[in-house]
Amino acid sequence: MTYATVNDLDMYYEDHGTSAERPVVLIHGALSAIGTSFGEILPLLAKTRRVIAVELQAHGRTSDADRPLTVENFAADVLALLDQLGIERADFFGWSMGAAVALRLGTHHPGRVGKLVLASVGFTADGLYPGLLDGIQDLQPEHLHGSEFHDEYLRVAADPAIGWPNLVAKVKAFDAATPEWTTDEIRAIAAPTMIVLGDSDIIRPEHAVTMFRLLGGGVPGDLQPMPACRLAVLPATTHTSIPRRAEMIAPMVHEFLSDSSV
Question: How many domains does the chain have?
Answer without folding.
Answer: 1
